[in-house]
TrEMBL record:
The reaction(s) this protein catalyses: prephenate + NAD(+) = 3-(4-hydroxyphenyl)pyruvate + CO2 + NADH
Protein name: prephenate dehydrogenase
PANTHER family on file: PREPHENATE DEHYDROGENASE, PREPHENATE DEHYDROGENASE [NADP(+)]
Repeat found in the keyword field: no
GO biological process: tyrosine biosynthetic process
């Protein structure tokens, strides 16, 4: 890899650029963003070597292009870069949903380039923008690649190496499985956090409620500070899977509510015990991060 082009110089694009530099990448990192101030900030912070507002200029001569914009903007970016990519270029993305990104790519390229490798780092924060970027975000975290039948083995290896160099553990899975799993573990918790905070904030005594919030409230709602545009896009991009898991949760919440209402302590305790056992078990294996 000699020239890495990152389109969307925000939190994830910025973290990737910093992580690549820290891993010893000596080539050129070109940043492209529709927001000129993001580019200026990235240049000032030394995160990118060159800034381009025009996607066509940014991708020219790049051997690897990473699209790191909100998932709703992927199609427009693919359309803007498609005619200007080098023939052997590898194109990848960091979007939180994968079927929607693949659909966006298929609507731009009548036949998908073999260099196209959909990807998703399962690492982030509630902050956004390049100013919040840091080089160690991906260390010890998972990155999911969802290669397609058209994806060439060489392109898959390039993207695997790109992420492995950041300290991430790379796993491969089918697109649909990715979207089902992430709807449950990431998209649903974000919707719950946003809704909880919104509901409480609209109560008459919200000032009093937030003033006495304890650690549990802070832990549970941190992700409600995440970027609304990004999460709006994710909701609609992974609509079916999100609605499926939301319905399941609604049913379980309704049952719990009914149990509390009729004073069924055994039922309530059984739910909490099962949940505690599951959380304690999985936290030792998966959930706690370095
Ligand atoms: N924030 C997080 O924790 C994670 C985010 N993701 C995914 O990464 C992607 C980027 O997210 P963040 O870096 O958090 O967002 P961000 O808001 O920090 O950065 C996105 C950047 O894309 C630029 N942009 C938006 N539309 C554009 C367009 N049409 N052309 C060029 N630039 C455009 C924005 O100006 C911004 O600088 C999203 O697809 C998100 O789903 C993936 C893993 C974690
Ligand atoms: O901040 C957190 O805890 C997150 O969950 C960040 C995050 C947001 C979106 C993703 O697609 C992956 C990770």
């Amino acid at each position: 890899m000699d020239k890495l082009c990152i389109i969307g110089v925000g939190l994830i694009g910025g973290c990737l650029a910093l992580a690549q530099r820290q891993a010893g990448f000596r080539g050129e990192i070109v940043g492209c963003d529709r927001d000129g101030s993001a580019l200026e900030e990235a240049l000032a912070l030394g995160i990118i070597d060159r800034a381009e507002v025009e996607p066509a200029r940014a991708v020219a001569g790049a051997d690897t292009v990473v699209v790191a914009v909100p998932v709703g903007a992927m199609e427009a970016v693919f359309a803007a870069i498609a005619p200007h990519l080098d023939p052997g270029a590898v194109i990848t993305d960091v979007g939180s949903t994968k079927a929607s990104v693949v659909t966006a790519a298929r609507s731009v390229w009548s036949s998908l380039p073999p260099g196209f490798v959909p990807a998703h780092p399962i690492a982030g924060t509630e902050k956004s923008g390049v100013g919040a970027a840091f080089p160690t975000l991906f260390r010890g975290r998972k990155v999911i690649l969802t290669p397609l039948p058209e994806t060439s083995p060489a392109a898959l290896e390039r993207v695997r190496t790109l992420w492995r160099d950041t300290g991430a553990e790379v796993v491969v899975m089918p697109v649909a499985h990715h979207d089902e799993v992430l709807a449950a573990t990431s998209h649903l918790p974000h919707l719950l956090a946003f809704t909880l905070v919104d509901t409480l904030a609209r109560m008459d005594d919200s000032w009093e409620i937030f003033r006495y919030a304890a650690g549990g409230f802070r832990d549970f709602t941190r992700i409600a500070s995440s970027d609304p545009v990004m999460w709006h896009d994710i909701c609609f991009a992974n609509r079916e899977a999100i609605l499926g898991v939301l319905t399941r949760l609604e049913e379980d919440l309704d049952t719990l509510r009914a149990a509390i209402d009729r004073g069924d302590g055994e039922y309530v305790k059984a739910v909490f015990q099962r949940a505690k056992r599951a959380r304690d078990h999985f936290s030792t294996i998966f959930i706690e991060q370095p």
